[in-house]
Design goal:
alpha/beta; binds iron/sulfur cluster; two-stranded antiparallel ribbon; 2 domains; Rossmann fold; 15 strands; Alpha-Beta Plaits
Length: about 375
């Protein structure tokens, strides 16, 4: 049975982090004979450069303490390898203020560099994935994720963090290919997870992100760190604690018979209710029975659309560059959406450095809101 370890942690004080990481990582690492003499790859969630306290990325203090701990435990080699959306991993680490400390610890920091088309397993939906091969060159992979909301996937935890191993140029293509169907995107993430199978998953949920995630939401104190030997078990457990056990990754994993057995250990947080991306997930399961054209039409009517706050936007054009179907153009220095081509993947929101892109409700969604409010009032009387 997989175990998911929890410890309560309310700030990023290095001494407390050190104690907390020791408590939850050592039991997981024991399964692999500890960290001694191992070549270890850490895949942190480094979306792009943000201030240390910004919850878009794992906290630099925790990344630093993790490396110190691995060094003290006698790891033979420690690499931090990531494929950030913007900038490079070394540049982000250095801007976070931990570049020199990690250099002193002789940590190798790099972007993913070597990619190969690797066949997945026989039950996969996607038979082959072009993915960074660094994960095959290390004895232990630590999938170091941040607890955040995500406009497409509701939450991004340990399984979603592995999407960063897909080649950057391919990621836009994948969004375009599967972004119209959230469950297909979940299938892709599950196939990446099955291929990579990180040995240890670690979740920074001291401060998480709620609302307009994964790039522009609000910080929320969750007050815990979690670790597990199975990324999907960790996601199941944490999604339940955060009040949304039906996220697309878990729904698809259930349909594909992939959900692992697990038990929670340690100081398990009480259930929390974070603010989900606005509006919550569209319920499209029933839509799979409709012809594709009708489904696409309904989807446009029922799924929120991206909108820009022109006062917050600085006209950097990153959203335009990152839009898979090129349904965004800069006009007079501000993005303008061409909604018929927009696949609602929310890459524009994810990459916007200013949080200027949010979601707008369609007419049908507003009607549903009114109906729900009336229904609640009716129930009270
Ligand atoms: S406009 Fe935004 S949500 Fe629409 S397709 Fe482009 S990146 Fe995706
Ligand atoms: S990424 Fe954000 S700030 Fe930059 S142009 Fe787009 S909306 Fe404006």
């Amino acid at each position: 049975m997989n175990k998911v370890f929890f410890i309560r942690q309310y700030d990023y004080t290095p001494e407390l982090l050190r104690h907390a990481l020791q408590q939850i990582l050592m039991p997981v690492a024991a399964k692999y004979g500890g960290f001694h003499n191992k070549k270890i790859m850490i895949k942190p969630n480094l979306l792009e450069y943000r201030k240390p306290e910004d919850p878009a990325c794992v906290h630099p203090a925790m990344l630093n303490v993790l490396c110190e701990l691995l060094r003290d435990e006698g790891a033979a080699k420690i690499s931090i390898i990531e494929n950030p959306a913007v900038h490079t991993a070394p540049a982000i680490i250095s801007a976070m203020g931990i570049g020199e400390k990690l250099q002193d610890l002789q940590i190798h920091i790099a972007n993913c560099e070597r990619y190969e088309k690797i066949p997945t397993h026989k039950n996969a939906i996607f038979q082959q994935l072009e993915i960074a091969t660094e994960f095959r060159e290390h004895d232990l992979i630590i999938d170091f994720a941040k607890a955040k909301t995500h406009a497409m996937m509701t939450l991004t935890l340990a399984v979603k963090n592995l999407f960063g191993l897909i080649r950057g140029s391919e990621r836009l293509g994948w969004h375009l290919a599967v972004g119209k169907d959230y469950h297909k995107f979940a299938d892709l993430l599950l196939d990446i997870y099955t291929l990579v199978k990180p040995h240890i998953s670690l979740l920074d949920a001291v401060t998480g992100m709620e609302g307009n995630g994964p790039g522009s939401g609000d910080p929320v104190q969750l007050g815990f760190i979690a670790a597990a030997d199975d990324a999907l078990a960790l996601d199941m457990s944490v999604a339940g604690i955060l009040g949304c056990p039906d996220i697309p990754i878990l729904s698809r994993a259930a349909e594909r018979n992939m959900l692992p057995q697990y038990e929670n250990c340690g100081d398990i947080p009480a259930p929390l209710n974070i603010k989900l991306p606005e509006p919550p997930l569209p319920t499209l399961e029933w839509g799979v029975y409709f012809p594709v054209k009708l489904r696409d039409y309904l989807r446009k009517k029922m799924v929120s659309y991206p909108v820009v706050d022109k006062n917050t936007c600085i006209g950097c054009g990153l959203c335009v560059q990152k839009c898979p179907p090129q349904s965004l153009k800069l006009k007079k220095g501000k993005p303008r959406f061409h909604y018929p081509e927009c696949i609602r993947c929310y890459c524009c929101q994810e990459y916007c450095p200013k949080g200027a892109i949010t979601s707008g409700k369609t007419f049908l969604m507003r009607c549903a809101d009114i109906f729900e409010r009336l229904f609640r009032i009716g129930k009270r009387h």
